[in-house]
Amino acid sequence: MKKGRVFFSVLTFIFFYSSLVQANGLNLNSLGTRALSMGGAFVGLADDFSAIYWNPAGIAQFDKKYFGFYGTDIIPSGKYKLAMPTPIGSFPVVNAKTESKHYLAAMAAYYHPVSENIVAGLSVYAPSGLGASWDGEDFTNIAMNNSGIEWRSKIALVTIAPALAYKINDKFFVGAAFNINYGTFDVAMHAGDEDLRVDLGQYEENLNGWGYGATFGVLVKPSEMFSVGAVFRTASTVNFSGDASISNLSILELNTTSDIERKITWPMWLAGGIAFRPMENLILTADIQWTQWSKIDVWKADYKDTGWQYMMGQSGNDTREMHWDDATQIRFGAEYRINSIAIRGGYYWDPSPTPDRTMNVLLPNYDFNVLTLGFGYSLNGLQMDIALEYLMGKERNIDITKVVIDPEWRTAMPGTHNMKIVVPNISISYKF
């Protein structure tokens, strides 16, 4: 068994290709504390400042100037274990836990009624952002005994979204937002190479880029008790560029750095939702949200240095097969008001689009069961909300035999993967 080849391929080149889009492993599945605390089932309601993200048609419901701010802290806790099979049992290779890291994100939005039927808005928010950071000591056995290697990843997308919504009548609303997306990506890990009997040291990559898209929404309120909404967000391709480095590549008489370009697509998103008010103080919501992950198939990196082009091309590491699957989230939420106090709760199921054969440690994806809980307080146009989201990832076990034998599994990372994520957040908004 060529252990070095397996792990060099897995840990050096796969994970910065495998999760660079808005997947559940890095997606901020809910923006706005009220929406998050209701399980993100908000497309059919969309009646607070986060509407520009969930359903821009909801903006047309605002009859006053409206400002809101949302802040969140994503705290992932991951575990990874790898044991190599031997004739007398298994030999532990890696037993790692993610370092304690905080991935902050925020949203700010302002809405201004232009006329009785038209409302304009502008928002800046982070729809996507996560990462992982591991202790290099835990990966010494698959890093040629180099414990000084950094193992980390961080990806974020920031969207600037001007929007316009129109109230056709008291029961029918439409809206649209233009999404200007700025993406950043940072990764660091071991570069190999045990097969060449040299330690290439630290690999690092830093990228940023711009992309564009749009969101279109419709909201229908046939009665005071019932509303239904639908939203479509176009795909957005971010043209990333930056630099890559391998600290000891001079051993092979190659430049230690290279410029790099890559196109990454945040995929199309479709969602529909309903809101039902069985009594004056109670709202029940439900959403179905679908993402076209199957567009994530094969990605190609364009290294500008000719030596890097040859090296990556010969090894096949300038392209990466992804083979992701479309995924559908199912969400439920509730809000009950007692005078100026609101109590909220929710649940959603968030399946991973990533097959086992592309699973990795730095930006992993899981099937998540998610519970949410929150509270709100309103006073004279001022609204304050707090919430907590808890994502419970389903354990993933990647068979090392398949990774070694089957070429289609060559980019998988064998072993046992676990992830839990805690997301506390707060919102403050004011109508004036």
Layout of helices and strands:
Blueprint: H1 3-18, H2 33-37, H3 51-54, E1 66-86, E2 89-97, E3 103-113, E4 118-134, E5 151-169, E6 172-190, E7 202-223, E8 226-233, E9 236-246, E10 257-266, E11 269-279, E12 282-291, E13 298-303, H4 306-315, E14 319-321, E15 327-338, E16 341-350, E17 368-379, E18 382-393, E19 396-398, H5 400-405, E20 415-431
Antiparallel strand pairs: 1-2, 1-3, 1-20, 3-4, 4-5, 5-6, 6-7, 7-8, 7-9, 8-11, 9-10, 10-13, 11-12, 12-15, 13-14, 15-16, 16-17, 17-18, 18-20, 19-20
The number of domains is 1
| Strand order within the widest beta sheet | 1-3-4-5-6-7-8-11-12-15-16-17-18-20
Helix content: under 10%
State the helix count: 5
Q: Major sheet: size, sense and barrel closure?
A: 14 strands, antiparallel, barrel
- CATH fold-level topology: Porin
CATH architecture: Beta Barrel
Number of E-state strands? 20
Structural class: mainly beta
Low-pLDDT sequence parts = 1-26
Kindly provide the name of the CATH class: Mainly Beta
**First-to-last CA distance:** 68 Å
Tell me what portion of residues adopts beta-strand conformation: over 45%
The average pLDDT score comes to 88
- Identify the CATH homologous superfamily: Outer membrane protein transport protein (OMPP1/FadL/TodX)
What is the general shape? Answer: elongated
| SSE pattern, N- to C-terminal | HHHEEEEEEEEEEEEEHEEEEEEHE
Computed over alpha carbons, the radius of gyration is 23 Å
